[in-house]
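To: structure subgroup
Subject: Chain for Friday's discussion

All,

I'm putting the inputs and outputs inline so they're searchable in the archive.
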Amino acid sequence: MASRGGPRATGTDGSDFQHRERVASHYQMSVTLKSEIKKLIYAHVFIWLLLLAQMCVGHLKLLPHDQVAMPYQWEYPYLLSILPSLLGLLSFPRNNISYLVLSMISTGLFSMAPLIYGAMEMFPMAQQLYRHGKAYRFIFGFSAVSVMYLVVVVAAQVHGWQLYYSKKLLDSWFTSTQEKKKK
């Protein structure tokens, strides 16, 4: 190689350095997965804010109960689901494995468990709506059980994908850690 502006070494056109500029695949994967998880966290925060707004409106009686129903019991523990997302975001800057593991465990406890409980809690009301066409709780004219089942389905998918991508991210971080130990 030659110095800046000086003569080139014979037999080279100056492009033989490009193979050294490739980023290792596990680093590329880490960046991609962090981006996907951040998108899912933003979707989760949006769902969380909707549930928080419904709870505030229901408890503070800002709107009549025939427009916005009181929250179901599963919604209260689901409010804790913001903590795993914050732990996940805190794990990103320095690839902190322990924060990511805590985020994954607490996602199961504070996000997925309340959603499963919510699906079971609302099932009798959904059955009554399906069989008899009777709904007693409403959210802006729609049956509350239908709206909340939609929220449960979307939130379960968001958290499921978040766990999946977190596991893949954890694997890529372990790969880079193992390669550093080999050197």
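Points worth raising on Friday:
The longest helix spans residues 144-182.
The beta strands are 138-139, 142-143.

D.
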